[in-house]
Specification:
single chain; globular
C-alpha cells in the first residue's frame, strides 16, 4: 500500500474511487490470502481490521487514530471478519463438492484430527444459506451475502451512536458522489 500511496493512491493523487479500487484489487488480496483455510481467533480479526484501517488512512491522509467507518461505507468495504466468513463459506462449499479421491477429502475423512474443516464449517454465514439457493450459483451466493451484510449493517445502525452513520445512506453500495465529474477540491468538499 505504501508503494501505491507513493505513486498516487493518496489524498492529493488519484481519485478516492480509483485509490479504493486499487486497494481492493491489489492490496487486500495480499492479507486475505489463506483466510479461507485458517481458523482465526478474535485477536487475528482485530489485527486484520487494523491493517485495513491503516491502508485506508493512507489513501485519505488520515492520522493514526482517525475513524475509517464512513470511508468503508462510502467505498462499500465490508469488515474483515465478514470478508473472511465469505471466503470460508466459499471454501467449504467447494470442498463439499470435491470427489472422494481428492487429498483434501481423504485427509478430512481419515484424519479428522488433522483437519481444520470441522471448525471452518461452524461459520455462521455457511449456516445462513437457505435451502432454495443453489450453492454452485455464484450470483445467488453473492446476493445472499449482500443481504446478510445489509441486515448486519441495519442492526449496527440501530445500536451505534455515531452520528455520521445515522445521517448517511443506509444502502450498502459505492457512493454515487465518487462517480460525479468533479475536481479534486469539489469532490473532497462533497465527501466531507
Amino acid at each position: 500500500m505504501a508503494t501505491y500511496n507513493s505513486v498516487g493512491a493518496c489524498r492529493s493523487g488519484f481519485s478516492l474511487l480509483l485509490s479504493s479500487r486499487l486497494y481492493k484489487t491489489f492490496v487486500r488480496p495480499k492479507f486475505e490470502y489463506g483466510l479461507a483455510i485458517c481458523a482465526l481467533l478474535k485477536k487475528d480479526y482485530i489485527i486484520l481490521e487494523w491493517i485495513q484501517n491503516k491502508c485506508l488512512r493512507m489513501i485519505v491522509g488520515g492520522n493514526a487514530i482517525s475513524s475509517t467507518m464512513v470511508l468503508k461505507h462510502i467505498c462499500n468495504f465490508p469488515q474483515m471478519h465478514f470478508r473472511a466468513n465469505i471466503l470460508i463459506t466459499k471454501f467449504c462449499i467447494q470442498a463439499h463438492s470435491l470427489p472422494s479421491g481428492c487429498l483434501l477429502s481423504f485427509v478430512h475423512q481419515h484424519h479428522p484430527q488433522a483437519s481444520t474443516f470441522r471448525s471452518l464449517t461452524s461459520n455462521f454465514l455457511l449456516h445462513s444459506i437457505p435451502n432454495n439457493i443453489h450453492c454452485t450459483s455464484q450470483t445467488q451466493l453473492a446476493k445472499h451475502f449482500e443481504s446478510v451484510r445489509q441486515k448486519l449493517f441495519n442492526q449496527f445502525c440501530l445500536s451505534t451512536t455515531q452520528v455520521l452513520i445515522h445521517v448517511y445512506c443506509l444502502v450498502l453500495e459505492v457512493d454515487p458522489i465518487l462517480f460525479l465529474p468533479a475536481t479534486r477540491t469539489e469532490r473532497s468538499r462533497l465527501i466531507r
